[in-house]
Amino acid sequence: MNIKSLLLGSAAALVAVSGARAADAVVVAEPEPAEYVRICDVYGAGYYYIPGTEICLRIGGYLRYDMGVGDVGAFTGATNWDKEDGDEQDTYWKRARLSLRTWTGQETELGTLKTYTETRFNFLNNQGRAERETVVDDQGTVDPADDVLVDVFTPNNAGNADTVSLNFAWIQLGGLRVGKDESAFVTFSGYAGNVINDTLVPFGDFDTNVVQYYFDAGNGFSAVISLEQGAGDFTIDSYVPHVVGGVKWTQGWGAITGVIGYDSNYEEVAGKVRLDVTPMENLSLFIMAGYGTDDNYTDDDYFFDAGGRGIYKLWSGNWAVWGGGTYTINEKTSFNTQISYDEGENLGIAANIAYDVVPGMTITAEVDYLHAGEFDEPGFDNWTGAEDEDSIGGILRFQRSF
Prior knowledge:
This protein is mainly beta.
């Protein structure tokens, strides 16, 4: 082999290697197709398609800060124990809340499939009085003669304990809804006005698991039937559910609604009728009346005494009325009020001014008053924890909705 042959062979090898590298350099993998989030406008503003599905999702909620002052009986105040001398004294009631909400919607062959959830996170002190309990201290002996009564003071401290709640978590297909909701006795007839403290005279309990069916005729007529579990002391005590039924007629002038509820625990019935009217573009008014039976609620022979109130007839006595409205002063400001009264001679008055500082940010200042007409009478049922016949207070609320 001569030098010329070596050079030619080396050159051929270099060309082959270079060609291979050049070929490798131009082989580029195909990029994955980009999938952008699409806006879904079928169910309103704020919905987006979940990538790869036909499910529309919306995420929202609010951040809220409440500051209350005044009497406990107006649902605005609080008390705590003085650190120096142990006296009970008035203080602020404050609450910071984060509410996270989700909505989903999807069209199916059986109708619209929807879900809704709301979870609330709170940091607060209790709206109410600090607790004091008298207990027996045995002084470490078994002799009853050594027992003494001791007051145990529980301060009303702010904190995060037991302040997370699942307020809504339901699934609805067509007209059928199942899950955690508020009672149809409340939601179908509507809340008692756009005030913060709308339950100075209560109009029904809220939390419950439900199996409901909604019917909408499309001409203004709608109806609901709801089987409910209740919550707390109102939880059903057997397989027999609480039952709510309602009908509504809605037109351009307003609406008229009727609901009736059956308490399966005490076998009592309550109902409400409501009229909503819009006499002018910037004014809406409502009046609502409730009536309920209470023989078993007031029967002392029951092992669990209801104290005159039930899951639906939550007001005092047989009857109650609520009325109020909203007047829109301008595009940023509205005035809201509610007046309520029941057979137990409880008179509640709430009024506020709500001002939209910027879109999504509202400040509300409210004054609340309660007159407990039977305060000094035997058997008085102290719904609000009033310390006197007349209670008054106020709340200032800051809310950022998103």
